[in-house]
Amino acid sequence: LDDYAHQPVWRHFYPFIDIIKVDFLTCDIENVKTIIEDLKPYPHIKLLAEKVETYELYNQAFELGFEYFQGFFFSKPEMVQSKALPPSGMALAELLYETSSVEMDLKKITDVFERDVNLSYKLLRYSNSAAFARRSEINTIKQALIVLGAAEIKKLLSLLFAAQVSADKPLELIRLSLTRARFCELLAISHGKLRDTGIAFLTGMMSLMDAILDEEMDSVMLKLPLSNEIKAALLNNEGLLAEYLNLVTLYEQGNWHAANDKAQQLNLGDDVPDAYHEALNWVSEQMQIMIDN
C-alpha cells in the first residue's frame, strides 16, 4: 500500500495487504509509532520506509521495526574512521591505474597479477568461465590477459575492486555501481567522442567509491591512482565523463524529462533508454558471475 495515511478506514484492508509504505521523511516519529502499534495484530504486514536519505534515518527506521527501505542513503558515505585498503585492494588499485591508459603495459599488469595468488586464481577462473565458451583451457596469466583483451580486463578489475572494498556494504550498492559503469560506457560508445570508452566504465564504477569506503571523494581519490580525466569528473563535475555520469544519475532518479533534455544536449541518439535497459541486463549477468566466483 503506497502513499499510506494512517486512518481507521484502512483497517478493513489490512488482511489483504502485504507491505505498507511510510514516507519516513515527512511522517513524524510519534505517528510512525502509532502505525506500528496498530499493525501488531497483523504480523503478516511488512513496513517499508521510503525517502530514507541518510544513515541516521535508516538506523532510526530499522530500530522502529521497518524491514524494507527505499532511498539513496546507501549511496552516500557514512563518515567513520578512514579505512585502509587491504593488500588485494591495493593490488587492484595498481591494476586499475595500469589499465586506465589507452596503451596498456601487458608486462606490468602480468607482474601485478603474478604477485597476488588470489587475483591470479580469479583471473584464470573468470577467463575459463562458461561465459566465454573457450575451446581450450587457459593456463597462464599472460594468456588470459591476451585472450580477454583490454575491455574485458578493465571490467573484471572494476568488479573485483568493488567487491573487495565493499564486503560490509549492501549488495545494491555494488549493483548501482555496475549499472553506472556499464551505462556510462554504452553512452560513450554511442557518442563516439572518447578514444577509450573503458574510461567511462571506470568513472561510473568509481563514482560511488565514497559511499563504499565511507570517506569524502577527495580523500578516496588520494588513495586511487586514477587518471586526471576521471578525477575531474568525480571531484569537480567537469568534462565529458561528468556529463555521462549526470545523465546516468537522472535515470536513477527517474527524472525522465531532465534525462531526455541532457541526452539531447549531448547530441545522443534515441537509443539511450535501450542502453539503460542493456546496462541493467548486463549487471544481472555480472552479479551472478561475482556470486559464482
CATH domain class name of the largest domain: Mainly Alpha
Tell me the number of helical segments per DSSP (H or I, 4 or more residues long).
14
Instruction: Give the helix level as a range of percent.
Output: 55-70%
Secondary-structure element pattern, one letter each: EHEHEHHHHHHHHHHHH
CATH architecture of the largest domain, by name, is Orthogonal Bundle
Mean pLDDT: 82
Extended strand count: 3
Indicate the CATH topology of the largest domain.
Hypothetical protein af1432
| Portion in beta strands | under 5%
Any low-confidence stretches, pLDDT <50, length ≥5?
none
Shape: elongated
Q: State the separation between the terminal residues, measured CA to CA.
A: 38 Å
CATH superfamily of the largest domain: Hypothetical protein af1432
Please render the helix and strand layout as text.
Elements: E1 19-23, H1 29-38, E2 46-50, H2 55-64, E3 68-69, H3 87-99, H4 106-115, H5 117-127, H6 141-165, H7 171-191, H8 198-206, H9 209-213, H10 217-223, H11 228-236, H12 240-252, H13 256-265, H14 272-292
Parallel strand pairs: 1-2, 2-3
Helix pairs in contact: 3-4, 3-6, 4-6, 5-6, 6-8, 7-8, 7-12, 7-14, 8-11, 8-12, 11-12, 12-13
Could you explain the architecture of this structure?
The structure is a single chain. The protein has helices spanning about 30-40, 55-65, 85-100, 105-115, 115-125, 140-165, 170-190, 200-205, 210-215, 215-225, 230-235, 240-250, 255-265, 270-290; strands at about 20-25, 45-50, 70. Strands 1-2-3 form a three-stranded parallel beta sheet, with no helix packed on it. It is about 60% helix and about 5% strand. The model has no long low-confidence stretch (mean pLDDT about 80). It folds into two domains: about 10-70, no CATH class; about 85-290, Hypothetical protein af1432. The chain is mainly alpha-helical and about 290 residues long. Helix 8 crosses helix 12 (about 240-250) and helix 12 (about 240-250) packs antiparallel against helix 13 (about 255-265). The protein is elongated, with a radius of gyration of 22 Å. Strand 2 (about 45-50), helix 2 (about 55-65) and strand 3 form a beta-alpha-beta unit. It has 14 helices and three strands.
